[in-house]
């Protein structure tokens, strides 16, 4: 295929005495970590520890801000004005950025979480608020979002580098959006199906929607959800498939810009 791709996972989602995900096992195989910032999951101790682990494994670090909804894991819609979303995102980015500075690592990117991610994908005002928060804190940050989304368009208007994200363990609708987690068959639990979906996206630039239709999609980075029961197996299988296909797996900040 002669291509480079980033492989990312959401992590740092434990808090207090509760442990979620196999973060250290995943860090051995991925190139980018999206670290929860304490609102939908995570806490200061977990954020600090996860930054240190990512540094240990030379994995790029990004902020994963979400709605303040631990009980719903940030997957429930909460009404905020664009100004409030700007502050919500800026606050969470700043928290993770502090731990990155403490441990001498540069934060690479920002990727909204859950309901905030889905809202920003379709709502221009929300997308603009997030892009402004990212740019105002550090215009070198990369903004992650779905290909063709309002979020990526907002990033481009703000002059940010953007990264089109696809998912190995999620199904797609005919309009290119993700199937809602509240609907049946939103998740892919078969590792071979997940790997085949990503292979098709990278090879042919299309994904098969739930109705069988092939939908065009771009991909700069591939996500596997770290809270899934098969996350480590999925990541290992994806690395094997990508290696066999001649695709170099590398963080976006370590990829050379095209001339």
From TrEMBL:
GO terms for biological process: carbohydrate metabolic process. This is 5-oxoprolinase subunit A. InterPro entries: Glyco_hydro/deAcase_b/a-brl, LamB/YcsF/PxpA-like. It is an enzyme of class 3 (hydrolase). It catalyses: 5-oxo-L-proline + ATP + 2 H2O = L-glutamate + ADP + phosphate + H(+). Its EC number is 3.5.2.9. Belongs to the LamB/PxpA family. GO terms for molecular function: 5-oxoprolinase (ATP-hydrolyzing) activity; ATP binding. Pfam families: LamB_YcsF. Keywords: ATP-binding, Hydrolase, Nucleotide-binding.
């Amino acid at each position: 295929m002669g291509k480079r791709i980033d492989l990312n996972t959401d992590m740092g989602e434990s808090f207090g005495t509760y442990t979620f995900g196999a973060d250290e096992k995943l860090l051995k195989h991925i190139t980018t970590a999206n670290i929860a910032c304490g609102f939908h999951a995570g806490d200061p101790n977990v954020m600090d520890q996860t930054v240190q682990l990512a540094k240990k494994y030379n994995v790029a670090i990004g902020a994963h801000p979400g709605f303040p909804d631990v009980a719903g894991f940030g997957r429930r819609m909460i009404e905020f004005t664009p100004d409030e979303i700007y502050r919500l995102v800026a606050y969470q980015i700043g928290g993770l950025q502090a731990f990155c500075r403490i441990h001498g690592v540069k934060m690479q990117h920002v990727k909204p979480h859950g309901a905030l991610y889905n809202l920003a994908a379709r709502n221009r005002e929300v997308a603009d608020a997030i892009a402004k928060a990212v740019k105002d804190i550090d215009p070198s940050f990369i903004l992650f979002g779905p290909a063709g989304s309002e979020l990526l368009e907002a990033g481009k208007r703000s002059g940010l580098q953007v990264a089109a994200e696809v998912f190995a363990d999620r199904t797609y609708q005919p309009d290119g959006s993700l199937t809602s987690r509240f609907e049946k068959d939103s998740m892919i639990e078969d590792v071979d199906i997940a790997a085949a979906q990503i292979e098709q996206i990278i090879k042919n630039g299309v994904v098969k929607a739930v109705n069988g239709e092939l939908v065009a999609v771009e991909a700069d980075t591939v996500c596997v959800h770290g809270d899934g029961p098969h996350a480590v197996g999925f990541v290992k299988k994806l690395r094997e498939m990508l290696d066999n296909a001649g695709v170099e797996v590398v963080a976006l900040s370590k990829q050379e810009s095209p001339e």
